[in-house]
Write the structure tokens for this entry.
Amino acid sequence: MILGKLRTKNALMSIVDNKKAYHDYFVEEKFEAGLALEGWEVKAIRAGRAQLKEAYVIVKNGEIVLLGAHVTPLPTASTHVRADPTRTRKLLLHREEINRLIGKVERAGYTLTPLNLHFAKGRIKLEIGLARGKKQYDKRAAIKEREWNREKQRLLRGRPGSSRSPRAQ
């Protein structure tokens, strides 16, 4: 009984993933950051109305901010608050982490990209990746490898000795 409670308490519940990030970048390190959100944004994100597809992370005035993330306001949003769906949101990290990320981005040619928006211990967190951009030939090689793995699975599924063959059912 206690184990079940621990498992659900520590589990991360994903809200939205940025699948395009893994297609466009080699993600080398991941960081979990908090987000400075307004009340209507928290309610909208809990309702699953967030998008990271065109979002990116930049360094601005010694802070790390999220730009382009779209949070669609709920229709029941307050009448006295003007909701801006794509406003700039500050990311909450320790100063040491911020300094390290700024150094990597400015000197080593890395970029920061949002990977995942999720719940952790009841709070909304953003997973950001320290990444290098892929060239076009890298993307083609990744697509080719993914298609070959799918084809291998199809071939293995069709073998008569395989336990997962359609004839065995």
